[in-house]
């Protein structure tokens, strides 16, 4: 029980002393179990990565990739990141998971580079908690050096939510990432609550239109108008724009007519495992 109380105290941060209360037992025990399972997953190779291309609408060229984590659990089967990432984000476990992703992504990039595959930027999702930590930039820099990866092939996707927590710190970290030549995207744009004034304060490169707006963009709903507004905003601020979750030709046509040029979604490619992705990078049309 002392351990559990300490775990909680650690979770809540140092200057915020917490006292053990009996009603915490359940959640804390659950978290203990989860932590053990994640650690287990890391040592016994239950995580793996899949890759989804971002495609230029003009020539169908692959302009970049996004890496997405998968958890093949021995008894529960495939667990979606939408399920376990939010739980990992409640604690510093997310840093361990993100670091695993960064390490394995760079190792894979190095392999593709060595095999002569066309090089395109690869985007990793980094949780807000990790972004504002002291460890993200040194870790990335060390791994870039270890695998000899140039910053222009690295992109970080963060969601808007993080901007609310500590803008000044976000600006600081983003500037350090920029100094490494890394690109920064805002993921799921339009679903958070970022104020527009942040957009000009932050050294951003790309807005990714959330798939919830893309879904209905070609119908007579408001979503088409929202997409149009986001695309205009990006253009006015000199940011790149990517539409995510594109599933139909109608969506592509509509968004392209609004000025969107880069697309990611099942219509073009589903996320795929490393061998398929490697083959496509070796043979397929890509350009950077
Ligand atoms: P996200 O970064 O917004 O990723 C896009 C999600 O949409 C992915 O789900 C992708 O598989 C899915 N998707 C792509 N194209 C389509 C489409 O045409 N239709 C539909 N319906 N879905 C599409 P996934 O892989 O389940 O990931 C869910 C979320 O989990 C991600 O959202 C991201 O926020 C988080 N995530 C995934 N991998 C990682 C990771 O390595 N680290 C961290 N911190 N978060 C991750
Ligand atoms: Mg993403
Ligand atoms: Mg997204
Ligand atoms: Mg998402």
TrEMBL record:
<protein>
    <submittedName>
        <fullName>Ammonium transporter</fullName>
    </submittedName>
</protein>
<feature type="domain" description="EAL">
    <location>
        <begin position="31"/>
        <end position="285"/>
    </location>
</feature>
<comment type="similarity">
    <text>Belongs to the ammonia transporter channel (TC 1.A.11.2) family.</text>
</comment>
